[in-house]
Amino acid sequence: MVKLSAGNEVLAYCGKCKLKLAHTIVVMKTDEIPDKVKCNTCKSTHAFKENATRRRAVASKGKAAFFAPLILILPSSEAPPIIRNEPI
Ligand SMILES: [Zn+2]
Fold this sequence. Notes:
Layout: E1 9-14, E2 19-28, E3 34-39, E4 45-47, H1 54-73
Antiparallel strand pairs: 1-2, 2-3, 3-4
This protein binds zinc ion.
């Protein structure tokens, strides 16, 4: 588990933006839980919303990992064209 500290960025729910966005930690409550965070988008400082959340942050990382293999499955656009030598 990564320890957080003031100045680090976390994903938190911003009540003004109504979105989960990157925030900079202003004050820590414990080693792992921010107390106050500053929205990197609207620059407002507010209490860290638990709703926000490191659980969801982990889930979204899991999602990225889920989609990563699909990128590998995509056919290469540099695949050589198939040339057929058909008699006319
Ligand atoms: Zn905001």
